[in-house]
Amino acid sequence: MYKHVNLIRSIAWSFHRSTGIDWKELFSEATAAYFQGLKFHRERHGIELHDPKKGGETTWIYQWVTSEMINFCKKEQKCKYVKGIDDWVLTTTFPDPFQEINPPLLNLSQDTREIVQMVLQDPHRYALPPRKAIGQIRKDLREIKKWSWTRIETGMRNLRSELKEPISV
Hints:
By secondary structure, this protein is an all-alpha fold. It contains eight helices and no strands. Mean pLDDT is 76; it is low at 81-103.
């Protein structure tokens, strides 16, 4: 296992970056998948993992662990669906979301306010893993709001910097 820990770690990290699932959880699942694969290979073939006639050892490990991680992530995404957001959206109305939720948000720039308002008006649309949500926001700014790519990138950069600053009340 120690010989392949970096491979397992890199597979878990790639899934963490693409899905947003906790890295420690993904690493433990990848490790479990690795040991499950070793056991399966020994029981099925009666030999150790590496058989030079059938391909490289790390190739087999990568394929096995990746397929198990895909299955895990599919199950995880089904379980982590945002429940109750329909009730929240239907029962809550915001005439001006910035005044109702957090008055200091009035100090944001116009583009940042538009991005936040777009997300608050349809939270269901952006209830995705972080990277996919950011991609969806960029796509909507381009297609719905007709923003240029430069304006989108500047707006997203401003959003990050303006919301990171401590908000004074």
